[in-house]
């Protein structure tokens, strides 16, 4: 059987709404439930209880929990501030937006996974995408290369935030984390004959600063994009006339 999920809430016909609830109230409440319980803890019944309404009344505004997740994702992305990019170097403008995106994903640990399953067509998501594409287009990218670069930057931040969230959820005691890193480093040293490069290069003790590591990785990705632009590789190759 195919995917029988209804279309994303942004594509569905809007129903007349009663004044007691609004999409905005539902979205804010959904974010609060997700922050407290995670994606597995979100249910229409739990959301209704937070709003002080019956679960059935929610269906006057949304078709399903899928719609609620769409609303929650877009509500979370409203926290990214859209500063004007005019006159700002493209690298600086992109880095500012990506850093904010990581901060949002850290505040809402459910977001990296949930956004992977959604059509990000809400107004806040589209505004962020429009700014992102506009910055890169003005820098000299277009076509498949532009799409690939947007993906590379987005997935870097999304994946980094997801890893960081999982790690911090498991390793909450800094002292215990330091012991684990030191033990892993000693293990690599003891197996130097089998893994000489890892033993020499993998600094498991000195890489516990997530902020520093994020910035190094982001700078490396941006360096690669800049190199493409300087070489003229950002534009779609045109076929020669026949």
From TrEMBL:
Residues 43-62 bind DNA. One of its GO terms (biological process) is response to antibiotic. InterPro entries: Homeodomain-like_sf, HTH-type_TetR-like_transc_reg, HTH_TetR, Repressor_TetR_C, Tet_transcr_reg_TetR, Tet_transcr_reg_TetR-rel_C_sf. It comes from the Bacteria. Pfam families: TetR_C_1, TetR_N. The keyword Cell division does not apply. One of its GO terms (molecular function) is DNA-binding transcription factor activity. Keywords: DNA-binding, Repressor, Transcription, Transcription regulation. Residues 20-80 form the HTH tetR-type domain. PANTHER family: HTH-TYPE TRANSCRIPTIONAL REGULATOR RUTR (PTHR30055), TRANSCRIPTIONAL REGULATORY PROTEIN (PTHR30055:SF151). This is TetR/AcrR family transcriptional regulator. The lineage of its organism: Bacteria, Bacillati, Actinomycetota, Actinomycetes, Pseudonocardiales.
